[in-house]
Amino acid sequence: MTALLAQIGDVETNAIEGVAFRRATLEDAETIARHRRSMFRDIGYHDEVTLESMMEEFLPWVKEKIASGDYLEWLAVTAGGFVVAGAGLWLMDWPAHMVGSGSRRGNILNVYTEPGFRRRGLARCLVEAALHWCKANEIDIVILHASQEGRRLYESLGFQTGNEMRIKL
């Protein structure tokens, strides 16, 4: 089921809580942005002014990236049409590198599940769909930044801790 979802992006019903999976469209940009805000709040960012500022900058960015095909998102949706989970994939230009053979790198981001739907396998299914899409489209390196809560899921999917360092200027 995940392979089919990743390939064609159509709606597929899953036995997980009777939730349907589909690829996001431009019309889903505000839901993706709302999930992003909730994700950051859940991992400890509570400054509402900063969260609102991030939202104002993120929404046009994600709309542009969806329209250009540089951002894909898979969603889990209830029978009533409520989006309960999502996982995004940003296709980043990447220079020739010692790791990976392509000119693009996948960056999984905005993985979020509504609290009442957690621990049911939805995030796993969505991330697997993104990884399958990458494999089918010759994206051979995929990165992400994991929260403490998500780390175990990503490790179980084969992600390994790397050597990235960061500085905020």
Tell me what the structure shows.
This protein has 169 residues and is of the alpha+beta class. The chain has one domain (2-156): 3-Layer(aba) Sandwich (Aminopeptidase). Helices cover 39% and strands 22% of the residues. The chain is built from five helices and six strands; from the N terminus they run αββααβββαβα. It has helices at residues 2-8, 29-42, 48-68, 122-136, 148-156, and strands at residues 12-13, 20-23, 71-77, 83-93, 104-113, 142-144. A six-stranded mixed β-sheet has the order 1-2-3-4-5-6, with helices on both faces. The longest helix has 21 residues, at 48-68. It is globular.
Could you say how many structural domains there are in total?
A: 1
State the total count of DSSP E strands: 6
Strand order across the largest sheet: 1-2-3-4-5-6
Low-confidence stretches: 1-8
Short descriptors:
single chain; 169 residues; alpha+beta; Aminopeptidase; six-stranded mixed β-sheet; globular
Write the layout of secondary structure elements.
Blueprint (H helix, E strand, L loop, with lengths): L1 H7 L3 E2 L6 E4 L5 H14 L5 H21 L2 E7 L5 E11 L10 E10 L8 H15 L5 E3 L3 H9 L13
Parallel strand pairs: 5-6
Antiparallel strand pairs: 1-2, 2-3, 3-4, 4-5
Helix pairs in contact: 1-4, 2-3
Quick recap:
The protein is an alpha+beta fold and 169 residues long.
